Amino acid sequence: MTQTEALKLALGALEEACEIIGRAWAWRDEKGRPAITYIKEALAQPEQEYDWKDLYEKEKRRSAMWLAKYEEVAGPAPKAYPLAQPEQEPVTIWYMRDNHTFKKLSADVSIALIEIEQEFNEGYTYGMLCSKREGFPNVHASGEKKRLEFFAECKKVFEEWLPSTTPPQRKPLTWERVLEIGLECANDHSRLPYEVKVARAIEAAHGIKE
């Protein structure tokens, strides 16, 4: 509600109250009328127009002035960093069959390729990859004779659009760290070389290699 609308609403209520109460008490002209007059005078004034661009520039200069004063006292102001964007949900890829039914594909590249091969084996050799995600390329199959070409294109699209399922490669401990652990745990330091070999064997068993 604007200020003008509020004044009009107040004026109407005040005039109605003065009319009702004034019949019983002769105070309408003493108290109600001056207030009504003030409201009408305010409504008669033209609404003030603002130069919003000028106001913005003034506030901008004022902010710069206060920032400069702050930095004189406290040093450079901390920089503002953009808020982290929410992560997008993993893309969902579908194989639209020749009969316009849909097969939802796995988010794992290898499994998705197997599912595509199963669709071909069942006779759906003219389907296409599709997704609701903006920018996703629609890859069309062109029959059994071009099966391998289509699979290669599917693999390329899956690797680009599906999340990576390859776990990060773990590095073995440094010799210094292995020796530190050995010294902490060994009861007999003469056995330390043996325990280092055990540590390396355990790492190798878990696929942790250089």
What is the topology?
Layout: H1 3-22, H2 28-44, H3 52-74, E1 94-96, E2 102-104, H4 109-121, E3 128-130, E4 139-140, H5 147-161, H6 175-185, H7 192-205
Antiparallel strand pairs: 1-2, 1-3, 3-4
Helix pairs in contact: 1-2, 4-5, 6-7
Q: Helical segment tally?
A: 7
Strand and helix order: HHHEEHEEHHH
The helicity comes to 40-55%
Principal-axis shape: flat
Q: Identify low-pLDDT runs.
A: none
Number of strands: 4
Radius of gyration: 39 Å
Mean pLDDT: 76
The strand order across the widest sheet is 2-1-3-4
Structural class: mainly alpha
Q: Main sheet?
A: 4 strands, antiparallel
Give the CA-CA distance, first to last residue.
71 Å
Strand content: 5-15%
What does this structure look like?
The structure is a single chain. Helix 1 packs antiparallel against helix 2 (28-44), helix 4 (109-121) runs antiparallel to helix 5 (147-161) and helix 6 packs across helix 7 (192-205). The protein has a four-stranded antiparallel sheet with strand order 2-1-3-4, with helices on one face. The protein has seven helices and four strands. With 210 residues, it is mainly alpha-helical. Among the domains are: 3-44; 94-161, no CATH class; 175-205, no CATH class.
Key descriptive features of the protein:
210 residues; mainly alpha
Short description:
By secondary structure, the protein is mainly alpha-helical. Helices cover 54% and strands 5% of the residues. The protein has helices at residues 3-22, 28-44, 52-74, 109-121, 147-161, 175-185, 192-205, and strands at 94-96, 102-104, 128-130, 139-140.
